[in-house]
Amino acid sequence: MKKLISIIVSLQSLLLSDAALAACSTTVECAQEAVELATQMKAQLKIHVPSGAVMAFDLNACPTGWTEFAPAYGRFIRGIDRSNTSIDPDGERAPGSIQDEALKSHAHSYRDRHGFANGHGDRIHAGISTHQQTSDTTSATGGPETRPKNVALLMCRKT
Fold first, then answer.
1. N or C: fewer beta carbons within 10 Å in the chain?
2. Contact 151, 57 (CB under 8 A)
3. Under a CB-based contact definition with an 8 Å cutoff, are residues 7 and 45 in contact?
């Protein structure tokens, strides 16, 4: 950002310099000088984005020179895992490859003591303490997917 500001300040000083004003003697020459300086300014301010780059846009359509990046439709972006530490369980994947949804394998179980008579889980029966236990699995809860909070942006690829 500092470099961009420096370029703008330099070009402004060029435009306003006595040399630039002295270089033209007619309105047409001054207009041509202004166009040339504006072209130089545009070239210096132009940010080069290489072909194949993918960027997120807060737009309804991709800008000119960009196409929608279909592999990103409805998906989160995940960096390629080159760490050799299995951060991504599928390892190092190819750019643009798609990974299906998954929920890490896990289970929930519990034991239920019932027939409590004295508040400690003991069933009192004829002066003998007994426990009745059952095992079960929790019922399903949640929505149609597991996801973090997110924002929808249009992913576009530079052509």
1. N
2. no
3. yes
Vertex 93: Cα angle to 68 and 87 (nearest 5): 115
Query: 3 or 82: whose pLDDT is higher?
Result: 82
- For the entire predicted model, the pTM comes to 0.53
Identify which of 68, 147, 70 has the alpha carbon closest to the alpha carbon of residue 101. 147
Enumerate residues 6+ apart whose C-beta is below 8 A from 89.
Answer: none
Of 40, 34, 43, 39, which is closest to residue 15 (Cα–Cα)? 34
What's the pLDDT tens digit per position in 136-155?
A: 777 787 788 788 888 899 99
Band the pLDDT of 37: cuts 50, 70, 90. Answer: confident
